[in-house]
Amino acid sequence: MKSLLQIEWMKIRHYKTFWILFALFIISVFGLNMIVFKVKQAIDEADPLLKAMTSGPFGFPDVWKTVGWLTGWLLYFPGFIMIFLVTNEFTYRTHRQNIIDGWSRKQFVSVKLVMAAILAAICTLMMVLASLVFGFASGTSFSVSNLEFIGYFFLTSYTYMLFAFMLALFLRRAALSVGIFFIYALIFDNLISGFISGQTNTPIGSYIAPLQVADDLFQIPFIGKMLPNRPELWILLIIIAAWIVFYHFISLRKFEKQDL
User: pLDDT digit string (tens) for 186-199?
Assistant: First the structure.
């Protein structure tokens, strides 16, 4: 696997689109959180009663949940990176060359899955750094409470990366994959969640759609609990694990069966 990852690195180290999207993600993580942090400070200064009601979402230990929720809105950027990394293989026929050079189809898919995990880990690292920056900026003392949200954010990121990978593998075209990924994640995932919930007449139906269930590991900060009917956490984790297994299986199955 190490040699395969070295080859992947050679493909992307001079790829400008990768570095531009990566830089935009990092800038956006700190920029978005800074904007909300400053707005929250201004609101607190103007309305002390509201400040008491919202209980400092950027202070430790709540900062892990707040920054995780805000950063989750920016996972489109690494998702686009994942799409371009995969669709470039088909555009430039490098996937064929890899197979000719002795890679198995399973190895080709496996190294992309590892790349998805690496991207998710990088996203998580940015979330942790931003949480530390704004947590200390709030003037509160560091706390190990709520550190589990770091793991939840990794699961959310990895789910997004796998969904983007699957789309790119099936569609093979960057523009089409990016468009569907963005529109689905922004609009249709919520619509599907609502439809399933309505058809099943159970609250858990709202948490079965592939991206919605990952997003709902984080509840909306600032305004208290907004998801009173959310299932137990272990149920959400089981659903996410099932989707991850599905993405692995269907991606490997697709590449093994499709024509090169």
Answer: 888 888 877 776 77
